[in-house]
Amino acid sequence: MRKLIILIKKELKELLTLQMLLPLILSVIAFAAIGDIVGRETKKTDAKQVIAIADQDQSSLSGNIINVLSQSGFSVNKITESTVESSIEQAKRSEAVALLVIPENFEAGITNHQPVQIETYSIVNNFSISSTKGYITLQGSVATINEYISNLYLAGANASIDPSLIKQPVTTTDFVVIKDRMAEANPAQVMNFVASQTTFIPIILFLVIVMASQMIAIAVATEKENKTLETLLSAPVNRRTVVWAKMIGAGIVALLSAAVYMIGFSRYINGMTGGSITSGAAPSQEVIEKLGISLSLQGYVLLGAVLFLGILCALAISIVLGVFAQDSKSVPGVITPLMVMVLIPYILSMLLDLTTLSPVLKYIVYAIPFSYPFLAAPSILMENYNLIIFGAIYQFIFFVSFVIFAGKIFSTDYIFTMKLNFSKKNT
Amino acid sequence: MTHHSAVKPLEVVNLTKNFGKVLAVNQVSFSVNPGEIFALIGPNGAGKSTTLRIIATLLTPTSGSVNVCGMSVTEDPQAVRQSISYLPEEAGGYKNLSGKDYLHFMAGLYSNSYQEANTFFNSAKEICGLGDRLNDKTGTYSKGMMRKLLLARAVMAKPTLAILDEPTSGLDVINALEIRKAIKQLSKEGMTVLLSSHNMLEIEFLSDRVGIIDRGKIYGIGTPKELKQQYNADNLEEVFSKAVSNK
Ligand SMILES: Nc1ncnc2c1ncn2[C@@H]1O[C@H](COP(=O)(O)OP(=O)(O)O)[C@@H](O)[C@H]1O
Ligand SMILES: [Mg+2]
Fold it and tell me: What is the spatial distance between Cα A175 and Cα A155, in angstroms, rounded to a whole number?
């Protein structure tokens, strides 16, 4: 036990260096900052998207339209120039996202029940989300104009019925049913909310597994390269202790970075959803509770366990793969099989529901210990606990077997002869 | 002699090691007496490191036996590791640890208590002679400093048998001399040393007895004086070329 602690301390000293911590912390700060900035910027663009209107008709109808738009919450800028070219210039100066040109004889056309046309000019300054939103604002203003005019028509044709009733005689009250729970809610909002809660988990898992498995494989390869491994394995220490110390040291570092990533990402997500990029608001707290679509404490614990076990499995595999590396430079190549194993459930889970795959594919996915973190959040929300508990047990068995296997390798000639065989081929 | 039953620190009998088709060590036998400095000398690829790594319990022999203080490296490697310490050829350290951290770490592994670890550390600190540089990361050390640190590490626990693979190779004259002096001193204090070298001239000064090895086979064992007489040679290099061409 004393020697295990001595070894773990040394692993941590070797791993927790500035070179390792700085990129981690910087990337997390960057993520959080991006979330904050995007959130703030989208709020800003929400507030001041200007629609410019060049009124070439100068009729009472065109005047009304401009009033209706202002009343409907659009910030309207009336153009004073007369030609289209100079109108566009003025619209640009006023930082409008679009220009609407109401042509001459607009009112006359409407009065005669003729189809009329409005030219729209979208002013694109860049290709970011705020420009896309400019087009949405433009469409909204055109819809408002159509709404206004069709109401006029309907009011003229049949004055006794409310125009809005004619256009939408049927309205809906929306309910969402999940298992035996039900609430009145917008299904799109519910889906968005669940996604925003759980999408970042696979990303974090992927980042941490890539980082941690490189880290431990490099640690093993470097020990071989520097012959410190020979020193360690000729010392009066149990070799299984050496393997466990490496596992525990790397596990601690992985857990630490997972926590740091979590914090960074939740800031990122909060920033993003603080702006209104995701369509619509979040469902009310009451709906969330009724539907059970936020993870409970037990849910989080189970999710955390499956995540951490997934990382441990990756570390255990990497420690074995590290033995095959002739030096630290060949580590990325050597751990490719592991990356593929993580990518399979990652990509499949983005595209498909893993639980409804065809049997063969499903058992392949279930055999990969990294599938369970991807399966966990949706399964737990669906109260499908059995699959995840089974997964956690499977991961644990997988992990322990691999550590025992690693211990076996560390107890044979193999760990020293591997490298030479490789370098023989290369030189 | 009354101590007929005294066990030798090292007894190698008919040791053979194959790496696939490569016969690295071929029926090698020798033994080392208490307090002696024994050197295996031979050119690169002779099988010195392979022999030393088998004795250090890192590789398993294909056939033959190796006993350290009467304990078999194959049957009881864990016990053998209590009696030996091994300095690998061209070894490095942990780049992010300071020299001090490194010695503390290794002292912890070789000791059974905190006090013992401290004793080991203090002795290593003295032997390496690195002074304040011990506070620096080993990544910043020169080759000579690194070797001194590792030698100090290898002997701090006063092992019955110190196994040193090419302890002076790649060092400049002054550093090599300092390392040889340190080894000589340790042997005077009672430590048994098995070392290897491809530099046959320096070995004359350093070792009590030598074994000449080439292509996995031993061609002669004795004190430098005996060997020079036997082959009518001026130095061990000459002995080597005569011994190897004779057979
Ligand atoms: N792990 C290994 N795999 C294959 N061949 C090896 C291995 N280690 C050593 N050899 C071969 O065994 C022979 C002896 O090597 P070695 O003991 O390192 O010699 P020395 O230390 O005397 O220079 C060489 O031919 C070497 O290439
Ligand atoms: Mg060698």
Answer: 34
